[in-house]
Write a structure and sequence with these properties.
By secondary structure, this protein is of the alpha/beta class. It contains ten helices and 16 strands. It binds flavin mononucleotide (FMN).
Length: 305
């Protein structure tokens, strides 16, 4: 029996695999890009790029616990100008599609980033990381106001020739109205979820165990929460949802696809084992064969209530 492992991301196109390496856990180091060339991935998302270069937060930036990590990288990146200048050469060895992640502190900054990205030929989409502080709104997280989501998507849509993806934090994914606002303003897909704000204290040094006060939690502990959000939001908007949060094996990935995700993202598990994608892909394929499906699109149809 023949079947398809392609992920249909609508306006973004078809990916040859439903597995995406998510933002912040994908690097541009050549040996790593080469390693991923032999992995069955559909796309990879760059680290989030900002207007000005950022050197990131003090060390330690990653802590590990039972079923989770907390990171406080602080969006370390070279800034959009240096990124664009070196992009083609830096990602030249990657044989899979790339998605460019950007984040601004205001609508104007998002527009600036979208404009700077215009000359690039390689990315298949721009992912708007909407979980950042917004200076226009007295420090309120950018996406915590639906009007801001509408505004940033509408303005970037006018500037960019790339399909847009809105990436949400758990706070924006807790209710589908944020995704609906982003869809109405013109995004082609929704990515969820970003990390959950979290902290760890060092009780012997009477301070945060991280170099920074707090960070974002990811990994297996995030999975049940992310899964429910993907289930709800994929039923609320007619555009593809890319589901992520704690996926570390084939069973996790199949749960997200069954809940309604059109593709799945792997982050923390990729840091643990950058070949995890092969095992996840093979498990999805076996599941499709065992259930005599014709494509991953049939997986959600198996779900009864
Ligand atoms: C070390 C690290 C850095 C991250 N950096 C970014 C980032 O720059 N932009 C972004 O949108 N998400 C970032 N994320 C969030 C991931 O893309 C993903 O949404 C989240 O970790 C949940 O997936 P996971 O549990 O598979 O890691 C980062 C996650 C980790 C662990």
């Amino acid at each position: 029996m023949t079947y398809s492992m392609e992920a249909d991301l609508g306006a973004i196109g078809n990916l040859k695999s439903p597995i995406i390496v998510v933002s912040g856990t994908y690097g541009s180091a050549k040996p790593y890009q080469e390693l991923l060339n032999s992995q069955p991935i559909g796309a990879a998302v760059t680290k989030t790029i900002t207007k000005a270069p950022k050197s990131g937060n003090p060390q330690p930036r990653i802590l590990e616990g039972k079923g989770w990590i907390i990171n406080s990288i602080g969006l370390e990146n070279p800034g959009i100008e240096a990124f664009v200048e070196h992009f083609e050469e830096e990602y030249a060895t990657a044989s899979y599609p790339l998605i460019l992640s950007i984040s601004g502190e205001s609508v104007q900054e998002f527009c600036y980033l979208a404009e700077k990205a215009e000359p690039l030929s390689t990315p298949i989409a721009l992912e708007l990381n909407l979980s950042c502080p917004n200076v226009d709104d007295e420090g309120l997280a950018f996406g915590l106001k639906r009007e801001r989501i509408t505004e940033v998507v509408t303005e970037c849509r006018k500037i960019s020739r790339f399909p847009l993806i809105a990436k949400f934090s758990p706070f924006q994914a807790i209710d589908a109205s944020f995704a609906v606002a982003a869809y109405k303003a013109g995004v082609s897909a929704i990515s969820l979820i970003n990390t959950m704000p979290a902290m760890k204290l060092d009780i012997r040094r009477f301070r945060s165990a991280l170099g920074f006060l707090s960070g974002g939690m990811s990994g297996p502990a995030l999975k049940p929460i992310a899964l429910k959000m993907v289930y709800e939001i994929s039923r609320s908007v007619p555009i593809p949802v890319i589901g992520m949060g704690g996926i570390s094996c084939g069973e996790d990935a199949i749960e997200f696809l069954m809940a309604g995700a059109k593709a799945i993202g792997i982050g923390t598990a990729n840091l643990v084992d950058p070949t995890v994608h092969t095992a996840v892909y093979s498990d999805i394929r076996s599941f499709i064969e065992e259930n005599r499906l014709s494509s991953i699109r049939d997986i959600p149809k198996l779900l009864s209530r």
